[in-house]
Amino acid sequence: MSEPLWWQSGVVYQIYPRSFQDSDGDGIGDLAGIRARLDYLHWLGADAIWISPIYPSPMADTGYDVADYCAIDPVFGSLDDFDAMLARAHDLGLRVILDFVPNHTSDQHPWFRESRSSRHNPKRDWYIWRDPAPDGGAPNNWRSNFGGSGWQWDEPTGQYYYHAFLKEQPDLNWRNPAVRAAMYDVLRFWLGRGVDGFRVDVIWHLIKDDEFRDNPANPDYRPDDPDIREFLQVWSCDRPEVHAVIAEMREVIDEYADRMLIGEIYLPLERLVTYYGENLAGAHLPFNFQLIESDWNARRIHRMIREYEAALPAGGWPNWVLGNHDQPRIARRIGADQARVAAMLLLTLRGTPTLYYGDEIGLERVPIPPDRVHDPWEKNEPGLGVGRDPSRTPMQWEAADGAGFTTGRPWLPFSGDHRERNVAVMRQDPGSMLSLYRRLLDLRRSRAALTAGSYRTLEAEGHTLLFERHDGDDELIVALNLGREPHRLALPGEPRPWKLVLSTHLDEATRIERHQVDLRPNEGVILQPG
Ligand code: NOJ
Ligand code: MG
User: How many Cβ atoms from other residues are within 10 Å of residue 224's Cβ?
Assistant: First the structure.
């Protein structure tokens, strides 16, 4: 292929801003904190950072309820702090991707206050208002993703408004051209400041059925499932008209050089890939969450990679995600040993990887005492295990009381082992998870086969995965043991000498012969001919 673009060859690192670095002792991370830690990200080998929302917000959904799209919440700092952070990032060659939350605003956003003030307000139609059903109840059966009806009764104006998430997050009406124009200006505001791209929150939600038809029942629903699963989300999202909206967004992005759009999309593969858009005029990267959603099973992952590669539209660039602020930590899901194998998989697959802060130090699920729960979803539907706080705990930098994160009381607790599990300690340990991430990121950048080379799945058995990455003269084999037993794996082609490039065990002990490699339990290796 031609020279890859930055968002193709690069690695995205997600920062949850409340939890990265506090600079003022209030226990909450902020922009000055992020700026202070950019050197670390540069050292680690990230190419771009995506920062979850930093805009003024009542924080009903920790920032995904935006009250002003063109400013910074005081808890995170000011626009000056933002500009300083951005400038420093660019000095270090790091791109900056912001979170754009277009599906809904905060109920405290001036647009919604106006909209709700009267049926005749010019902004009434900026949100989704409906009359009650004939029996006086909600207009249809659409549920909130955080539990309960998606419709909130508004007594003063005698109508319901729709909210796919909290009632404090009313959905905008993206069928209204004035809404679109206003939101595109928001994009221009940040693009003009030098932002390199956006991760677009719940992009598949933007357009709903124009007839507001009831969603069909989900035959697989079980009573202890979260509420949202009771119905299949057929009419409330992923409507065909959404693609025209995304294409417009993309046009705005393309008014500026070298910028990009990521779409947050939880949909089955065949629906997901439609978000590249017709003639690739949609999102540059529709987030691919299959590694998050799949069981940690070699045969299933093998099939999934092949199906994904096959389903990509011509010219569509792949991407892979291992974790984010809404999902259980990878080390929790598959265990600390396999998390190393997962790191190698993420960083050797073809396409842009996104890694989640803290995964590089192997953060696991941090237990949250009941009186410190923040996540509104957990509060709405307690006991189902939907709470996201355990994956959002502060980054652990050093073996100090505040873990180098804060001089105050952190907004969420640290892990019990934070005195050992932190950047300062793990940097010194050449065998640590952090060292593994750094080695992998370095390799990914320096080896053309990994950065933008072709991908070919090779046959492997049992709990192993085997694939080849190839670019010109550069050829690598990746062999991963997803099992807890040793496994002897046949190497492809005529017997020839192979050399170890990297093992997840970060030693040289792997036994390699001309036609086979002996993988140790939970070991992944990268090999090259020679
Ligand atoms: C997806 C975000 O990632 C999640 O954190 C948030 O709660 C919802 N969208 C609503 O904005
Ligand atoms: Mg702070």
Answer: 8
